[in-house]
Automatic annotation (TrEMBL):
Signal peptide (residue range): 1-26
Residue ranges occupied by any AB hydrolase-1 domain in the UniProt entry: 38-256
Keyword Transferase on entry: no
Descriptive protein name: Pimeloyl-ACP methyl ester carboxylesterase
InterPro entries (UniProt xref): AB_hydrolase_1 (IPR000073), AB_hydrolase_fold (IPR029058), Sec-Metab_Biosynth_Hydrolase (IPR052897)
């Protein structure tokens, strides 16, 4: 039994409820598709279902897809969970992260030779010592803090949600209102400490080709901050003018095409 299958037995069950797509997990998680597997990692205040329209397009074009259930508990621990998922997949991978998910994939893919491209979607690209909170505040424009509601948990932890009434305008201003309201209800909270947790060690974008889809009217991560991070990383950039933080929901075709571009250019 190879390393990846062993890893799945030990840790892959963490993600069992969040897997979506055509990754052919039957038969020891092997697939024979020539195209790379696309792994999608959502961020805070979202869930795996937000990728559904992107998944449909990728699958139609022949890509195996896995949509991971990001725990949203902390950068380091979330990265361990995502890395276990990556280790369960044979063959090349294009790894995609939205928002806080960008911090997670930057850590999870470090040193992973199977990850051929990183795609950031309205996301963070931190260096060691930087947190999501640091980067979102580096440039003016984020209004997220004024929309948050907190829930105290046992052990001193605090979960953060976006106020449901404010969610459509804050997170998904260009998504149909009825759909944005549903997302407000199904949003998954993030541990407050995760947003303040510094990235540590090598970041995958420092050695793996990176692509950055920037949301031009983002109220969570200011577009200027996204552009600054992308330039620092030497990422290939596409900006979607007028797009909210939910650019992957409002522009699924553009998002899928951008991911496929990364796959074509990096997987030979």
């Amino acid at each position: 039994m190879n390393k990846k299958v062993l890893s799945l037995v030990g840790a892959g069950a963490v993600f069992a409820a969040g897997l979506t797509g055509t990754a052919a997990y039957a038969g020891g998680n092997h697939h024979t598709a020539k195209k790379p597997t696309v792994v999608l990692v959502h961020g805070a205040f979202a869930d795996s279902s937000g990728w559904n329209a992107v998944v449909q397009r990728l699958r139609k074009d022949g890509y195996p897809v896995v949509s991971a259930a990001n725990p949203l508990r902390g950068v380091a621990s979330d990265a361990v969970a995502v890395r276990a998922l990556l280790d369960s997949i044979d063959g090349p991978i294009v790894l995609v992260g939205h928002s806080y998910g960008g911090s997670v994939i930057s850590k999870a893919a470090a040193g992973d030779k199977d990850v051929k491209a990183l795609v950031y979607v309205a996301a963070f690209l931190p260096k060691a010592g930087e947190s999501a909170a640091d980067l979102s505040g580096k440039f003016p424009g984020s209004t997220l803090g004024d929309t948050l509601k907190s829930v105290a948990l046992p052990g001193g932890h605090v979960d953060l949600y976006i106020d449901q009434a404010k969610y459509p305008q804050q997170f998904a201003a260009d998504v149909p209102l009825s759909e944005a309201k549903l997302s407000a209800v199904s949003q998954r909270p993030i541990d407050q400490a995760a947003l303040a947790e510094d990235a540590a060690g090598a970041q995958a974008w420092q050695s793996i080709p990176s692509y950055d889809l920037i949301s031009g009217a983002d109220r969570n991560i200011p577009p200027a901050a996204q552009q600054w991070m992308a330039k620092r990383a030497g990422a290939k950039v596409e900006t979607v003018k007028g797009a909210s933080h939910s650019v992957f929901v409002s522009h699924p075709g553009t998002t899928a095409s951008f991911i496929e571009k990364a796959a074509r250019e990096t997987v030979r």
